[in-house]
Amino acid sequence: VNQQRQITAFFSKS
Amino acid sequence: MLELRLVQGGLLKKVLESLKDLVNDANFDCSASGFSLQAMDSSHVALVALLLRSEGFEHYRCDRNLSLGMNLNNMAKMLKCAANDDIVTIKADDASDSVTFMFESPNQDKIADFEMKLMDIDSEHLGIPEAEFQAIVRMPSAEFARICKDLSTIGDTVVISVTKEGVKFSTRGDIGTANIVCRQNPSIDKPEEATIIEMEEPVSLTFALRYMNSFTKATPLANQVTISLSADLPVVVEYRVAEMGYIRFYLAPKIEE
Fold first, then answer.
1. Nearest Cβ partner for B255 among A3, A8, A13
2. Which of A1, A3, A12 lies closest to B126 in CB terms?
3. Do residue A11 and residue B124 have CB atoms under 8 angstroms apart?
4. CB distance A8–B44 less than 8 Å?
5. How far apart are CA B2 and CA B94, in angstroms?
6. Which of B17-21, B129-133, B205-209 is least confident?
7. How confident is the model at residue B255 (pLDDT cuts 50, 70, 90)?
8. Chain B: nearest CA to A9, how far in angstroms?
9. CA dist., res. B92 & res. B136, Å (int)
10. B171 touching chain A per CB within 8 A
């Protein structure tokens, strides 16, 4: 299954 | 007190048209350096970052940092009432719960003001680090929009592959497959028609076409689009907003599981 990842996983929360 | 006067009011109309389908509500952050926005789509798969630098405005007054929570659909509705060549002024008082958009016709014979209610929005602000990209493709924005539209009639996802040969957009669906290759083309006579590929190493990533198509709503803002790719990083699709800033869309890649 092709999964789309959450954008939050890539960027730090500031 | 906030007062931002933009002679090219049409730019703001185009910015809103490119954002309103992706993001419902967002905070516009106003500081001395500019008018900016960072927002995620409701499924947290895409992120949009807008910057309009203060120098790009004819008049820019922002006494203290302000965050204006707006429903982008409603803001777009109001800006649609401005003519493309109108001068647009955005005004807000520090403690106010509303924002005013003032539209002036170029010869000053018509002046309109629209007041819109602001809203409280809890938004997650993400830190976007500067990344090194494996490949950066610059191409005509209309061409990119056409490719995304065409491929979405066949499949749901697009594989973007960059090699020395060029950039390939591929999809597959129930009815078949499609591949579109754009080769490097410096187009010295017409730089707006150029396709330029800067590649450190080949890269191939898969993305949802639904989002790509949504990003191409920004096509009227710029003749060229820049697509920056790196393995396991979100793609960055960037449109310049005249000389004053940019709108950048980040989309998380799809992964095979």
1. A3
2. A12
3. no
4. yes
5. 7
6. B129-133
7. confident
8. 9
9. 39
10. no
d(CA B240, CA B51): 10
- HEC sequence for chain B: CEEEEECCHHHHHHHHHHHCCCCCEEEEEECCCEEEEEEECCCCCEEEEEEEEHHHCCEEEECCCEEEEEEHHHHHHHHHCCCCCCEEEEEECCCCCEEEEEEECCCCCCEEEEEEECCCCCCCCEECCCCCCCEEEEEEHHHHHHHHHHHHCCCCEEEEEEECCEEEEEEEECCEEEEEEECCECCCCCHHHCEEEEECCCEEEEEEHHHHHHHHHHHHHCCEEEEEECCCCCEEEEEEECCCEEEEEEECCEEEC
ipTM for this model = 0.89
Tokens representing B196? 């330029």
Q: In this predicted model, what pLDDT tens digit does every residue of B118-173 receive, in sequence order?
A: 999 988 889 998 889 999 999 999 999 999 999 999 999 999 999 988 999 999 99
Taking the C-alpha atoms of residue B51 and residue B28, their distance in angstroms, rounded to an integer, is 10
Let me know how many helices (H) and strands (E) chain A has, helices first: 0, 2
Residue B219: both structure tokens together: 């096509």
Q: How many degrees, rounded to 5, is the angle at CA B17 between CA A5 and CA B219? A: 75
Question: Per-residue pLDDT averaged across B70-75, rounded?
Answer: 96
CB B1 within 8 A of CB B94: yes
